[in-house]
Every structure is written in C-alpha cells, then in structure tokens.
Amino acid sequence: METTTQLNTLLAPRFLFRFSLPVKRKTPVWGKTSLGESYRLTDLAALDAGTANQEPSFADVRMAWDTDGVAISLAVTGKGQALWCRESRIEESDGLVVWIDTRATHNIHRASKFCHSFAFLPAGGGRKSDEPLADQLLINRARENARPVRPRELQVTSKIKKTGYELSAFIPAVALGGYDPANHRSLGFTYAVYDRELGLATFATGPTFPFQEDPSCWATLELVD
Question: I want to staple 131 with a disulfide (CB 3.0 to 4.6 A). Which of 20, 26, 102, 126 is the partner?
Fold first, then answer.
C-alpha cells in the first residue's frame, strides 16, 4: 500500500525564494488572438506541493505586455458548481485579482501610488448578472492610492463552460500609473484566483502572508521582447 506523507512546515517553500520571471511582448497585446502556451506564468504554488501550505491546482494564468498595457488570461477547470459572482461583493466572488507595482519596489511593506489592484470576474455584471466585469480595488494600508480608473478603461471578456470558464482582461497603460516599459522593464506582480468551490490559487506567496497589501510579498516580472 502506498502512503502519502505531508511535510509540516511553518513557512511555505515559496517564501524562501525571490522570484523573477519573464513576460513576453505581444503586439497588439489586446485583440482577437489568445495568449498561447509561451505566455503561461509558471505555477509557483507547485513548490508547496506535499506541505500543509499546498493549494489546489485549477488555474492557468497567462500574461503579455506591450507599450499599450498588459493582457492577462485565466482558464479555470474542474468545476461542478455554478459560478458565484456578485457585482456588489466583488472581493468575495469567483474570479481573478491581480496586484501590479509599476516600479517593482520590493523593500516596502505598504503600497505606494505605483501599486494597483484590479479584479476581473467572469460573470456578475450587466442587468442579468451574466456579463463579465472589471473593477479597481483599494489596497489596504496603502501609503498613497493609485489614480482611480475611469469607466471602461479596464476591459474583460469571458466564456463560461460546463466545467469552468475562460477569462481575458486588458489593463491599459493609462490605468497603470508609472507604467513605462522604455525605462522600467520590471513589474512587481502577484495574483489570486478565488473560487468558492475549488479554493484559492495564488502566485508569489500564499494566504499565510499578507500579499493583498504588502508589495514585498510580490514577485518580479521582467518585460522581455
């Protein structure tokens, strides 16, 4: 009989590393073509496999950049229940939340005006609550908030399937204060995929650390051609 041993550790293995990963350029970054396999972000949470900090694996997250902004796609699989998305309760809904620091300043613990958080839901918008929606979120304990985005600056599309959904989002450069790929080729970045049925999938650090508000918990993304 095979047995599985779970490694008990106070610190998630991901905490022991400072991650820096490449993100490829795509021109145009937002359009009809989807993000292929080469744009997939490494599943850093896999490093926690076999520990008490292990997260479920159900999300495929991809990202691309251009001078116009950044595009992010998400594919969620393995669902057996309907989505739970509410425009009035975005932070409790199924969907994707990203955090971006356009200055990649990892030695601060409170967000600056260059730090942004955006939520993208596959449903919950529109009169029938069946349309995707996007919104900006405030970062708790921020020293200074980023500029509020204007209506329709953020863009999002989605496709609901029997066992999950696909979501594509675009964050234009105008919504990212300090976004300047010509002079700053690094971004601080992390994400969280929330799902009431499947659980939580995170990027740089998991829920044992305050990644929702602390930029030092975020990874670095290198914008490459």
Answer: 126
DSSP 31-81: SSSPP-GGGBPP-GGGGGTTBTT-----EEEEEEEETTEEEEEEEEE---S
Residue identified by tokens 């975005």 is 90
Whose tokens are 């159900």? That residue is: 58
Dump pLDDT digits (tens) for 18-49.
Answer: 789 999 999 999 987 889 999 999 988 777 67
Strands 59-66 and 164-172: unpaired
pLDDT at 6 over 60: no
Structural domains of the chain in order of their starting residue, each with its CATH number: 19-45+55-224 (2.60.40.1190)
In this prediction the pTM is 0.91
| Residue carrying the six token digits 């300047």 | 180
pLDDT tens digit string along 91-106? 999 999 999 999 999 8
28 cis-preceded (ω within 30 degrees of 0): yes
Which two structure tokens, joined as six digits, stand for 3? Answer: 């047995």
